[in-house]
What we know:
Blueprint: E1 10-15, E2 23-28, E3 34-35, E4 40-42, E5 51-52, E6 58-59, E7 63-68, E8 82-87, E9 93-99, E10 109-113, E11 119-123, H1 163-169, E12 180-186, E13 193-199, E14 205-206, E15 211-213, E16 223-224, E17 230-231, E18 236-241, E19 256-261, E20 267-273, E21 283-287, E22 290-297
Amino acid sequence: MPILGRPSYRPSRIVATGDPNDWVELYNPGDKAIDLSTLFLTDDANNPTKGSFEAGTTIAPKSYKVLKFTDTWPGFKLGGDEEFAIFDDKGNLIASVDWDEGDSPVGASWARIPDITGAFKTVLPTPEAANQDKAPSTEPSVAPEFSGQDAGDGSEPSPEVGPEATQEAAQEATPSNGKLVINEVVAKGDPHDWVELYNGTDKDIDLSDYSLSDSISDTAKQVKFPKGTSIKAGEYKKFDLQDAPEWPDFKLSKDEEVGLFAPDGSLVDSVDWNDGDSPDGKSYGRLPDNPSQWGTLDTPTPGAKNQK
């Protein structure tokens, strides 16, 4: 995700190979405490009520909160190639993030850089404190000390992969092997804004019953692709965003989000960006040397692999 909508609180950091526990960190930038006890958390967007917060669980204003996954809470573990999402009691997606194998190796976390607002990146864990753009230590990891609500004890640890090895392995990587993903967006297009998808599977995909939206949480804003729309295996495909009566009757703004939804309404992929991420003449896309991360690309490449 991984990423994410625009709630008043959002996932700030993930540790999927924690010692002794995996954990997720939330941040509340607001001026009021937030009651989490009416919300649900899950590692499967198709099962939004898989776990629940304990009664009385809150997050203080302008504060970080670590949710520690133990044997007793929340009833699931985090994996090396995983997703994490928070839903409200009406089934609306509040926030989500996903990561690939190697993004959160032993001794590292998958965190927003810059802190709170940025895209996710593999860095040194700093629980209950601002994220820092520091590479994980190569020394044996020591369990961090923090307070926070208990949760499940985590999945089987993913292979120990340092940032250098991850970077090297990603040099020839496609955006996401085996998945359909959003790969690039242009929010100040001329004449149109556009979104590019990449089909990382080995099969053509009929998109007729898939939907696109500029709101992750508002299901009423999901717009189906035109009938007969498809994307070939391994194809990068650009979709212009036009006003009615053309498709899809919404445009992108400078501080925005886009979600791709499956025929059953489940979230397939999403991306959000801030003012300045997609300026005139540039795009916001998956970085070619590390497709799990997003950044501003100087040269938009509609229908082709992203370039630095």
